[in-house]
Amino acid sequence: MNRQPFSPGEYRALVARMTPKSRFLRGYLRAFWVGGAICCLGQALTLWAETLHLGEVTAPMFTTGVLILLGTTLTGIGVYDRIGKYAGAGSAIPVTGFANSVAAPAIEFRREGPVTGVGARLFTLAGPVLAYGIATSVLVGLVYWLGKGGAA
Amino acid sequence: MSRAGAQTFVYDRPPVIAAHASLAGPKEGEGPLAAWFDELLEDDLLGQKSWELAEMEMVRRCVQRALDGAELAAEDVHALLGGDLNNQIIATSFAARSLGIPFLGLYGACATFVEALVLASALISAGDLGNAVCSASSHFCTAERQFRFPLELGTQRPPQASWTATACGSAVLLPHGAPGRLRVAAGTVGRVVDLNITDTNHMGAAMAPAVFDCIAAHLADLRRTAEDYDLIATGDLGWIGRNLLLALADRAGVGLPPEKLVDCGASLYSQEQDPHAGGSGCGCVASVSCGWLMKRLERGEFRRLLLVGSGAMLSPTSSQQGQSVPGIAYAACIEGGND
Amino acid sequence: METLWTFAKAFVVGGLICDVGQALILHTKLTNARILVIFVVSGALLTGLGLYKPLVDFAGAGATVPLTGFGYSLAMGAIEAVNRYGWIGAFSGGVARAAAGVTAAVVFGLANALLFTPKAKR
Question: Is C27 touching B (CB cutoff 8 A)?
Answer without folding.
Answer: no
